[in-house]
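Fold this sequence, please.
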Amino acid sequence: MFLVFDTYVFDNKVFMLGSSAGTNGSGTNLFQKNNLQDKLLLVLSQHSFPICNSSFMSEYKKVELEYILRSSPNVLYSFLTEPSGLSEWFCDDVNVKKGVYTFVWNHDSEQQAELLGAKENVFARYRWLDEPEDTYFEFRIEVDDITGETAMMITDFCETDDEDETILSWNNSIQNLHRVIGS
């Protein structure tokens, strides 16, 4: 058994991925290298990346929330990635141009984000363009193997003093999502 390390650059950051490899006793290698895109999506969908900038950590806090939704992952994913779906629960309107999502609230307030990564029916990660580069907000879909319940995990970053307001905002948005999907 040995470790195989691959180095990738994603969103201007360097990641080293280690995988154990070995043989099944007959000399056949058990490690199969995925293509770059699949491996990056796997990393993005399974791990949160450490933030190395200590001054950033003193100003921002990571917030992780979980909500149970009565929806299939396929239907839920469309509400997390498609402009028409996002505008039904998250904001009033969404426009996408050259990979930049413009979210509109109250028909006069806008904020722009880029989609950092996504895997169909699993997750979507965005970054607000006016926030520090080490921040993001992510929607992750998981289905419990035993109960069959669909859960959506939200990871977001907020200024340390704004945690309660951020949680309240997500709770309100998820109430809207419940209403729209009928759960």
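Residues 1-9, 14-57 have pLDDT under 50 and may be disordered. The chain has two domains: 2-46, 54-181.
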